[in-house]
Amino acid sequence: MRYILILDLVLLSLVSFPQDFKTGTWKGKILTPESMIKVHLNIVEQRDTIVHAVLFEPTTCLLYDSCFYGNDLNLKSSKKDWAIRNENLRKKGLLNDNKAAVYQEIRLSGSLADNKNQFNGELLLEGKIFPIELFRDSKPIFRPQEPQRPYPYYCEDVQIRNKKDSIVLAGTLTIPSKEGKFPVVILQGGSVPTNRDGDSNHHKSFLTLADYLTRNGIAVLRYDSRGIGRSSGNFYKSTPLNLAGDLLAWRMYLGSREEITNNKIGMIGHSEGGMVAAMAASQCPDFNFIVMLGTPGLPLRDVFEKQTKLKLEIGEIKPEQYESQQKETQKIYEMMKLNLGSKVMMDSLMRFKKTFIHQYFDSIANDPMTRYKAEMLYLGIIDLKINPHNLYNLNANPVDYIEKVNCPVLSLSGSNDRMVTSKDNQEAIRQALISAGNKDYQIIELEGLNHSFQECKKGTIDEALTIEQTFSPKALDTITNWILEHTKK
User: CATH class for domain 154-299+396-487?
Assistant: First the structure.
């Protein structure tokens, strides 16, 4: 007889546009002298270098990877989680009290192939190791804009240290040529940690942007977020102000490079990254320009609330989910208002998390597997909301920093952006720059682009997954031409 192993990997995104190269359904076969076993795995959380997953079939247990770096995945079970799992199953009547379950490590390890549709690795199950070759159960993914080696410019992997926070930062510097001096931009990602290529929805937006700029005479430094790739630290334990310090460290490094024109160093920040760039520029007058892409200008709390309402309006979430999230978020706001930044507040939030979870489970189906899956997902969501990074953002107002920016600014947005709506946020940015007395800024809305600057019809997350275009050519041209215009002298 034969084992036919079917693995179903589904990433349940906790935030929009995450680094999620594993999203989708994967299937494979393992041939042995035994019978068929179906394996079902859900990856429910990715935070910095940590990935949590739930294995539902052939047994229910937690799996985790504590050192995920964006390419190789090594999920494994733990004795502690196995004991908790057994106790939960006993309480639910799914495990006989008289039959002790012996811990046997379960491990899934491997890496994604270059074509993004194949996963190669090994599965350790019941003491046996099976080679795995998994394929994505969907039509092939095409990314026609993704640059391919060899590149017609100079590439160098670089590494520096942010001495203030004792963080190692690693990235890639691309320079049009080793001969001559060039302007340079630092690419800053948004509210989700990502690698230097900007991996998201099977696109490499920062690699595509860097390639286009470098081919047009502009050097680019793109780097791994804290806790991702080869950069150390913890993204979610760092506030945007900490991340602004990373930009300051990169600015000092680039100023020492012979190939870089010292008075032509700027930043391109996407989403929250635009606010981080404004923070850096408000602290350091040595930055010579900023490009803000889909950057919020309204208080971030208002931006988040509008995101949720838009999801409700277009049917991405159900009314009961919306109401539940509103109650949960309001409670977090109330506790923050009373005890902002204190241990008392964090203790209160943790107690609320447990209470909220119990209340939520009372309102859903009693099927143990459904409840177990929902518990993992909602614990992850609440944990994301009450970490230092996101708690900071719940009280952040980007204009506090933008109104201190005096260098040239290009603020670009898409009319179909449903994450950071264009007109209201762009107007807030405009007013902040006027308050700053900034005489050199440009506010542009590009028709038909979403938050990732893809040409689209709806601007939804589901639609973004299906779009082959990585970065709109008209956005690439607008950014490039503006930078060249401001660095030609």
Answer: alpha beta
**Beta strands in 98-241, from DSSP E residues, in sequence order:** 107-112, 118-125, 128-136, 154-162, 167-175, 182-188, 199-200, 203-204, 219-223
This prediction has a pTM of 0.74
For 157, phi then psi, to 5°, come to: -75, 130
* Total residue count of the chain as it appears in this document: 489
B/e letters for 142-158, b = 16+ CB within 10 Å, e = fewer, are ebebbbeeeeebeeeee
Q: In whole angstroms, how far apart are CA 53 and each of 3, 11, 44, 184, 279?
A: 23, 9, 5, 40, 36
Peptide bond into 150 cis (omega under 30): yes
State both tokens at 412. 């670009």
Please report, for residues 2, 7, 29, 123, 124, the alpha-carbon distance to residue 35 in angstroms, rounded to integers and kept in the order given: 5, 15, 12, 16, 17
Q: Which residues contact 469 (CB under 8 A, 6 or more apart)?
A: 144, 145, 454, 455
User: 190 pLDDT exceeds 80?
Assistant: yes
Name the average pLDDT for the chain. Answer: 81
- Amino acid letter, residue 297: G
Percentage of residues of the chain with pLDDT beyond 90? 46
> Pick from 195, 238, 279, 271: which is nearest to 425 by CA?
271
How do the domains of the chain map onto residue ranges? Answer: 5-136, 154-299+396-487, 301-393
Rounded to an integer, what distance in angstroms lies between the CA atom of residue 64 and that of residue 70? Answer: 14
Q: What is the pLDDT of residue 477?
A: 98
Per DSSP, helices labelled H in 92-239 are 205-215
